[in-house]
Each structure stands twice: as structure tokens, then as C-alpha cells.
Specification:
The chain has about 300 residues and is of the alpha+beta class. Helix content is about 30%, strand content about 15%. The longest helix has 25 residues, at about 110-135. It is elongated, with a radius of gyration of 25 Å. The protein starts with 16 loop residues before the first helix and ends with a strand.
Length: about 300
């Protein structure tokens, strides 16, 4: 990337084949390096492709039946390589919510949580990308780049919206939150299923999943608006190292509900009638839908 300043009368036409070749030789450190300049776009005639650095996030992600995803919702400098990941995460995030609304298991209000959850992530990501770009070009940016953990933007952020339920929910702030908290990605724990090792992440989906600890009570969870897959550790799924409870921040008699996108929606330190009643309320609230009397589905 080589900058130019239009206010000084500079432009793309200044980048002749000779200038481009010299820039490559200087970068390599060999003034005699033999090379051939190819067009920036196959079939074109120009050796360079121009672009303008930008950083912005849309004021709204949803307006009635229109939802913005990817570059339509946010634009950021290439520093850090975070733009494509953020766009893919938008689409993956929105897909299950759209599917739930379209199949009738969720109310239209669920779609409002898309902006509430994804826009703060984009704002923080754009801020970091911009600071990294400034740092790269000598304009500072050290403070933000040092404060924000890359893993917090890639995988470790926490959602705060009506689609998660808990008392310790905060929005993304560049720090990696405690694993297992509502609004965070369900953590990986190695377990065994049918005698073979697998990750707890592989147990979730395609809908909502309720995982009960090995010492959880026998109370049956009431079915909500959407199908709920129920898994109990010690009943077809084994946790030989006993890591599941610690990783999810609950006791061995606790429960964790995971959304279709792999994020923790709710958790209870102890599973029993009180927790089962709360879960029924939680499901109806998260999905903005009246509760169904149907029973749970077991896998």
C-alpha cells in the first residue's frame, strides 16, 4: 500500500509501471531485481487499484424488513484483518434469528436483538482497526491497540440484549469476559460421547440446547416456543475430567442453555423446579413468543 494526496495534485495516474517497479525493488532491497508489472485488475490497463481508508458503523442495523449485514453495516481499515470476520459473524448471527421468526418459533421482536448485539462489536472492531492503521502510518494509536485484546474481538466478546438472560451481562469492551457467562460463547470442554472424544461445542444446535450437570435434579424442563434439546452429563455424554462445571461457572448440579449460534443464553447454579420455571419464562422472553405446552425433545 502506497499513499497519495489528492490535495497536492497527486493521483492514480502518477503510478506508472516504472514507479511501481521501483517501489517493489525498494521494498525487496534489490535495485536490479528483474520483474514484470501486471495490471491490478486482470484485463485492465492500470498497474494500481485505488481505495480510500474509511471507518464507520451504520446508525441502524434494522429498519422494518431491511437488515444490514457485513460491509453494508460497517466499513473498517484492513489493519488487523478483522473486516471479513466481522461480516461473516453478522451473517452467522442473524441466520438463526431469521429462521426462528420465519418458522414461527420466535416473534418479530427477536430481530431487534441483532443490532443490540452486533453493533457494539462492530464499533469496537472499527475503533481497533483505525488505531492500528494510525499506528502503522506513524499516527499513534498505541493505547487502544494495547488495551483491546484481539481474541476479545475475534471470539471472546459478550453480547448484551434481550436475547440473553442473566445478572452479570455486559457489552463488549475489549476484554475477554469470564467463560460461561450469559452472552459469551459456550466454552470448549473435552467430553466423551458414545465412547469417542468430542467437544461440548459439537453437542449444541441446530436449535436451543440445555445441558444439565451430572448431579442436576430430575425436574423435566418445560418446552418453550422453540424445540429444546436436553443433554445430561453422565447420560450418554461423559465428562471424565470434571471440567464442564468449572468452565461454565455452575456447580455439578447446574444447567446451561446454549443458543443456536453457540452463545450461552442462560445458566443456573442449581437445576430444580425453581430453575425449570425460570427457564420457561426465559425462553418465552428471549424469543418474544408465547410459551408452548409441548414437552422437551431428547437426543
Amino acid at each position: 500500500m502506497v499513499p497519495y494526496d489528492p490535495e497536492r495534485g497527486q493521483g492514480p495516474l502518477d503510478f506508472t509501471d516504472e514507479r511501481c517497479a521501483q517501489a517493489v525493488r525498494e521494498a525487496v532491497g534489490d535495485d536490479a531485481l528483474p520483474l514484470r508489472v501486471l495490471p491490478a485488475v486482470p484485463g485492465g490497463s492500470r498497474a494500481v487499484h485505488t481505495w480510500e481508508p474509511a471507518s464507520w458503523v451504520a446508525r441502524e442495523y434494522r429498519r422494518d424488513r431491511v437488515l444490514l449485514v457485513g460491509d453494508a453495516a460497517h466499513v473498517m481499515p484492513p489493519s488487523g484483518g478483522l473486516g471479513a470476520n466481522t461480516g461473516v459473524q453478522d451473517a452467522h448471527h442473524l441466520a438463526w434469528k431469521l429462521a426462528a421468526v420465519l418458522d414461527g418459533s420466535a416473534g418479530d421482536g427477536l430481530l431487534d436483538s441483532y443490532e443490540a448485539e452486533r453493533r457494539p462489536v462492530a464499533e469496537l472492531t472499527c475503533a481497533l482497526s483505525t488505531r492500528l492503521q494510525e499506528e502503522r502510518t506513524g499516527g499513534g494509536g498505541d493505547e487502544v491497540a494495547a488495551r483491546v485484546a484481539r481474541i476479545a474481538l475475534g471470539l471472546g466478546y459478550q453480547y448484551a440484549s434481550d436475547a440473553v438472560w442473566g445478572q452479570d451481562i455486559e457489552g463488549p469492551d475489549g476484554r475477554v469476559p469470564e467463560a460461561g457467562r450469559p452472552g459469551t460463547r459456550a466454552p470448549h470442554v473435552r467430553v466423551e460421547r458414545a465412547g469417542r472424544g468430542c467437544s461440548t461445542i459439537d453437542l449444541y444446535g441446530p436449535g436451543f440446547s440445555l445441558v444439565l450437570g451430572p448431579d442436576a435434579g430430575n425436574t423435566e424442563p418445560a418446552q418453550g416456543p422453540a424445540p429444546l434439546k436436553v443433554l445430561r452429563l453422565g447420560d450418554g455424554v461423559e465428562d471424565p475430567a470434571g471440567e464442564w462445571s468449572r468452565a461454565h461457572g455452575v456447580g455439578s448440579g447446574g444447567a446451561v442453555m446454549v443458543r443456536p449460534d453457540g452463545f450461552v443464553a442462560w445458566r443456573a447454579a442449581s437445576w430444580g423446579p425453581a430453575a425449570a420455571g425460570e427457564l420457561r419464562t426465559v425462553l418465552g422472553s428471549l424469543l418474544a413468543r408465547p410459551l408452548s405446552p409441548a414437552g422437551p425433545r431428547r437426543d
